[in-house]
Amino acid sequence: MSKLGIIVASTRPGRVGLPVAQWFEGEARTHAGFAEIELIDLAEVALPFMNEPNHPRLARYTHQHTRDWSALVSGVDAFVFVMPEYNHGFNAELKNAIDYLHNEWLYKPVGFVTYGGVAAGTRALQMIKQVIGALKMTPVLEAVNLPFVHQFLDEEEGLLPNEIMTAAAKSMLDELVRLEDNLRPLRPTLEAPHGA
């Protein structure tokens, strides 16, 4: 069994992404399709905007924060991006975190939990597919989209899902497990990054 990484994309104060991700983490643990689950908060990872001089494909990292990020992403077999929608697109911090690396993302499946207003983050989801396609990541068709997300939030209890959200989470996790197993043989064995 493999490891699932749940990435909290939003870093802004008062963000909705953290309670949404915490809810999904609980669903993933209940599902039990992955041996390990790690919640990865980009606000805590705190990557500066890309400051590596070499192309990520070369893995010639000059900064410790990049080597740490590389090790974290390398150790994960499948991802879920918990992401907002900003101006019909996905946020810059997530794009930056993706762009730091290359080989570490290859042939890994990715699911999406998106949230927002009436569109529920679906425009951001469509936009990011081009980016992950360039990294040979495989998006699962099943997704969790939360429209008018604030109606599901409680200050003390976090996200209070309905049956549709819970069923969508299970369907997406089922497919992530299936895809991860099939993509695993395609993934390259990564050497330690240069400068490690």
Description:
The protein has one domain: Flavodoxin domain (Rossmann fold). Helix content is 37%, strand content 17%. Helix 1 (17-31) crosses helix 6. Helix 4 (92-99) links the parallel strand 3 (78-83) and strand 4. The longest helix is centred in the last third of the chain and has 21 residues, at 163-183. The strands form two sheets. Strands 1, 2, 3, 4, 5 and 6 form a six-stranded parallel beta sheet that branches. The chain has a two-stranded antiparallel sheet with strand order 7-8. By secondary structure, the chain is an alpha/beta fold. The chain is built from six helices and eight strands.
Give keywords.
196 residues, alpha/beta, Rossmann fold, six-stranded parallel sheet, two-stranded antiparallel sheet, globular
Short description:
The chain has helices spanning 17-31, 42-45, 64-74, 92-99, 122-134, 163-183; strands spanning 3-8, 36-41, 78-83, 109-115, 138-139, 144-146, 153-154, 158-159. The chain has 196 residues and is of the alpha/beta class.
Map the helices and strands:
Layout lengths: L2 E6 L8 H15 L4 E6 H4 L18 H11 L3 E6 L8 H8 L9 E7 L6 H13 L3 E2 L4 E3 L6 E2 L3 E2 L3 H21 L13
Parallel strand pairs: 1-2, 1-3, 3-4, 4-5, 4-6
Antiparallel strand pairs: 7-8
Helix pairs in contact: 1-6
For the termini, the CA-CA separation is 28 Å
Helix-and-strand structural type: alpha/beta
* CATH homologous superfamily annotation: Flavodoxin domain
Q: Could you tell me the strand content as a percent range?
A: 15-25%
